[in-house]
Amino acid sequence: MTEDYSKGAAWIKGEIVPVSKAAIGVTDWGLTHSDIAYDVVPVWQGAFFRLPDYIARFLESVESCRMSIEQSPDQIQLKLHDMVAKSGLRDAYVAMVASRGTPIIPGSRDPRDCANHFYAWCVPYIHVIKPKIAEAGARIWISSKIRRIPHDSVNPRAKNYHWGDFTQGLFEARDRNFDTVILEDHHGNVTEGPGFNVFALKNGTIVTPLEGVLHGVTRRTVLEMAREQGLETLEGKLSVEELFEADEVFLSSSGGGVIPVSRICDRHFSNDAAGPVAMKLRKTYFKLLEDPCYRNEIDYGTFN
Ligand SMILES: *Cc1c(COP(=O)(O)O)cnc(C)c1O
């Protein structure tokens, strides 16, 4: 019987299987404690984008969580290539995951006793905000109740599964008909949202938070593109007031690149439309996805 990989594939326990067949155990701390470090790299038109950067960040996250998965960057790269090739997906959301695992001594509460393990999975490309909405400008809710988990409680620089704050924020946003949410910290500064970084443009300078956020690879790409286009960039504190007073606001994510924002709560930007600077960066991002300098082509021939 031939397996159906149209919905995606997973590399788990040494084999590649359809994504619907991949599972981890119910006693895995990855599940019981959200104890996971992960990363997500986009595949666009048959190639990975900035793959070495994503793998390097993944291994930093794994190390900062004190996990050991015994995978070199080359070994991870090979597994991801084989998995995506087998799936046949040309545009994909590709996750690499390190889970704490299950204690080798049953019932142990000592994290050092856990058998850490690596797996990966891919599904068709995901836009965190649908392209149609992104191009009209996304509508953002800022929660006045739910704050981002403090950075000295859960390290946001290591991409992780502690999404309790984001999920509550998303409920608030969706209940009010906003597309997504941005969370502030306990001092009134902007942090990030569920899977994206935040930028404000004011008088030709692009500002994005430095502390308390994941340093997105797309965030880095945005800063590089902006400098290339002659804009000033600044990584530092960004207060919620400054966000409201910005000329333009936009988001960045591997799931959809640059996403212009038309509204934050009751504040409208660019006459309730996507701003021109954000739209230009969005177009440049999608062009960069096709730039051979950043691409790691997938050889689908091995499997198909
Ligand atoms: C993944 C993620 C981002 C965006 O990072 P990219 O590397 O650009 O995809 C931002 N914030 C959080 C919390 C994330 O999980």
**Overall helicity:** 25-40%
Task: Name the bound molecules.
Answer: pyridoxal-5'-phosphate
Q: Which percent range describes the beta-strand content?
A: 25-35%
Amino-to-carboxy terminus distance: 16 Å
Number of helices: 8
Tell me about the largest β-sheet: 8 strands, mixed
The helix/strand order is EEHEEHHEEHEHEEEHEHEEEHE
Structure summary, number of beta strands: 15
Radius of gyration over alpha carbons? 20 Å
What structural class do helix, strand and pairing data support? alpha+beta
- Rough shape? globular
Low-confidence stretches: none
Mean pLDDT over all positions: 97
Describe what you observe in this structure.
The protein is of the alpha+beta class and 304 residues long. The protein has helices at 29-32, 51-64, 73-87, 131-136, 164-175, 217-228, 240-245, 276-288, and strands at residues 9-12, 15-18, 36-44, 47-49, 92-99, 117-124, 138-142, 180-182, 197-202, 205-208, 232-235, 248-253, 257-264, 267-268, 295-297. Strands 7, 8, 9, 10, 11, 12, 13 and 14 form an 8-stranded mixed β-sheet that branches. Strands 2-1-6-5-3-4-15 form a 7-stranded antiparallel β-sheet. The two termini are 16 Å apart. The relative contact order is 0.15. The model has no long low-confidence stretch (mean pLDDT 97). Pyridoxal-5'-phosphate binds at residues 40, 159, 192, 195-197, 214, 216-219, 252-254.
Quickly describe the structure:
By secondary structure, the chain is an alpha+beta fold. The protein has helices spanning 29-32, 51-64, 73-87, 131-136, 164-175, 217-228, 240-245, 276-288, and strands at residues 9-12, 15-18, 36-44, 47-49, 92-99, 117-124, 138-142, 180-182, 197-202, 205-208, 232-235, 248-253, 257-264, 267-268, 295-297.
